[in-house]
Amino acid sequence: MKIGILETGLAPEELREEFTSYPSMFEALLGAVDASLTFETWTVLQDQFPASINDADGWIITGSKHGVYENAPWMIELQQFLRDTVSAKLPVFGICFGHQILATALGGKVVKSEKGWGVGVHEYAVTTGENDWLADSAPTMRINAFHQDQVVELPEGATVWAQSDFCPYAGLQYGENAASIQPHPEFMRPYEQALLEMRSDLLPDDVHKAAMASLETPISSTDFAKSIVKFMTRKRVQNAA
User: Fold this and answer.
1) Multiple choice CATH, 2-233, 3.40.50.720, 3.40.50.880, 3.40.30.10, 3.40.605.10
2) pLDDT grade, residue 191 (50/70/90)?
3) Which of 99, 122, 147, 184 is catalytic?
4) pLDDT of 58 above 50
5) What residues have CB less than 8 Å from 46, skipping those under 6 apart?
């Protein structure tokens, strides 16, 4: 299976030599689960879009420092691309900004939350329901987060599969082929720690201190990666596109 990665944000320049990019993190995370997966990245942030929704078998949308409410031209184009992809029943999975722009594209609302920054390791309750791709998930999972924005109004037909008191709509699903998550399963501890240290000036002291302390908590990212791969690769009925 070929997974197309829609790169909506660049890793901070100061961290690129060590950590490279968000697409490289996804390739490492998902490739460790299924070595047969192949990847291609389109940096939509820089107006590099696929020629067709069929240029990949499924799509991952990365995180970004931007807010979807900025309504930059590339964001508007990306929203249409996502609507087309969802309509064609191709698998789509969004992370952080990807979670937010997918919700926006399908009719939801995203704002800069009054709750402030969600950073460090956060714990989420998981509702598997009839979602076979979550069948092996534990009732809770812990994943590194780094966000201020949140989805506050759900698109019609969206279901919630992960939530916390801080982020009630942390995991969303739209039918059989589109889903998303607010935190960052691709962020391992070294990157989350480096990002927290570099962005400490943005965070209240108590929030930064708590986030740094939370890094001692084991995370569920490698287990959750299996669920993402299962979601992306399971058989579906596709419409002609």
Assistant:
1) 3.40.50.880
2) very high
3) 184
4) yes
5) 74
